[in-house]
Amino acid sequence: MKTSRLQLIALPDLPMVRPGDDLADLILQGVAGAGEALRDSDVLVLAQKIVSKANGRIVDLRGVTPSARAAALAAEVDKDPRLIELILSESTEVVAKRPGVIVVAHRLGIVLANAGIDASNVEQEGDSERVLLLPEDPDADCRALCQAMHERQGVRVAAVINDSVGRAWRNGTMGLAIGSAGLPALWDLRGEPDLYGRELQVSEVGLADQLASAGSLLQGEGSQGQPVVLVRGLRFPGSEQGAGALLRPAEQDMFR
Amino acid sequence: MKTSRLQLIALPDLPMVRPGDDLADLILQGVAGAGEALRDSDVLVLAQKIVSKANGRIVDLRGVTPSARAAALAAEVDKDPRLIELILSESTEVVAKRPGVIVVAHRLGIVLANAGIDASNVEQEGDSERVLLLPEDPDADCRALCQAMHERQGVRVAAVINDSVGRAWRNGTMGLAIGSAGLPALWDLRGEPDLYGRELQVSEVGLADQLASAGSLLQGEGSQGQPVVLVRGLRFPGSEQGAGALLRPAEQDMFR
Which of A58, A102, A210, A239 to mutate to test the interface with B (most CBs of B within 10 A)? Predict the structure, then answer.
């Protein structure tokens, strides 16, 4: 399966997303605005923030009461106890902490700072202190989007929800997949031949993560407002896998 | 700096690369073969293997004499002592080991299995047991390539050398940058405004790593033979940085 050309198209002029918005509808408008129409095997890469916003995953810190555990941890890392309360409620484990930084294993399995909770690019009103949580079930969001596109446009697309995540050993964030559907998030190439016909030794490729990073090249971080990237031309096999396939069990992890 | 469309073009019909080959020349032939010509701000993403091959970083295990340390480690991880000798000679630290796997900090700073040494896609002759090491100085290789393209074509391109690397917490390899030139490997967006005009909190982006992963979507792993990907349309600031900017010092690393 050789991909010879790939096009990445940032959908223009997407409106600010609000709770209850129909993302499939907004994306179809964006695709049309780009002068395109969806095709089979297109991959939609969605920034986590718009999915969280559409799903109403917004919490106002003013309504959060920190537990004693959250208060103690907040004092230790010098952060808002209400934020720490939310971080703990979204996490299964605190992986690392120091003043100003807390890295956790999110209940979705991904390891990231602040459980992915963030106030950037979140609309405030009056004295609001709104923050945005990761989607409840990003794989399900991806499946629903693919399904909607099939029902409305008759096309079989794939979808990835990405977030910008820090990582071990390396400076700088990279786009990683927190959800996916319609493609093998983890693509198993073991057994394929190398250039000289011998069997490849390694090769499970983090396909959804690589798509997440590719999409991130166009999404940018701040005021650019390009949360959806259409990836066209990729050749990949079908799959029922979600992004959970990318989670490496601790006992198999030699890179920590 | 908003990138609205990105094209990734795998250069077709590159010949097998051999020691001493002029990569710039091969790449220009490939660009022409794709019906294209290089433009300012094009980014060339090169698979590590072709750079290593052109640089003659091929070692025949038959000529390697393992040290006592290598022999002991080889017994422990159940690998060829001559390969372990090469891995140790290329590394500054053994990060993790178990039977069948050894993860090291390469002297270039990147953490990866087997010090990136691999026999896949390496041509053998007779009883040869050739393996390929990472380039000596991939940043310098990238700078030289950019310089050659400027001299021969009058264009200012950027370059990334990538490799498929395992990582902490996640299954599957991702393309990461082992060398770069002509772009900020680590792109500092701190201080930029968010959608609502507030300052972004985090944002140093691993630009070269994201390009490495994007390129990897087309390079594939095995017999596809598409080691060079032309990335066109990316907007980025100039930079003198190399890929070393992506190395996170241990004392700042909370993700291990």
Answer: A210
Contact A195 B223 (CB under 8 A): yes
* Fold classified for B7-56+136-252: 60s Ribosomal Protein L30; Chain: A; (3.30.1330)
- Chain B residues closer than 8 Å to A244 by CB: none
Domain B58-132, CATH number (from 3.40.640.10, 3.90.1660.10, 3.40.50.150, 3.30.70.1050): 3.90.1660.10
Render pLDDT for A125-141 as a digit per residue (tens, 0 to 9): 999 999 999 999 999 99
Q: What is the pLDDT of residues B168-213, one digit of tens each?
A: 889 999 999 999 999 999 998 877 777 667 766 667 999 999 999 9
ipTM of the complex: 0.94
The CATH architecture that domain A7-55+136-250 belongs to is 2-Layer Sandwich (3.30)
Say yes or no for a CB contact (<8 Å) between B200 and A222: yes
Pairwise CA distance, residues A112 & A207, whole Å: 19
Q: How far is A144 from chain B (nearest CA, A)?
A: 25
User: Are B170 and A248 an interchain contact pair (Cβ–Cβ within 8 Å)?
Assistant: yes
Give B226's contacts in chain A (Cβ within 8 Å).
2, 4
Interface contact A169-B255, CB threshold 8 A: yes
Dihedrals phi, psi of B161, to nearest 5 degrees: -105, 125
> CA–CA distance from A33 to each of A10, A173, A181, B233 (Å)?
10, 30, 24, 19
Backbone torsions φ then ψ of B246, nearest 5 degrees: -85, -5
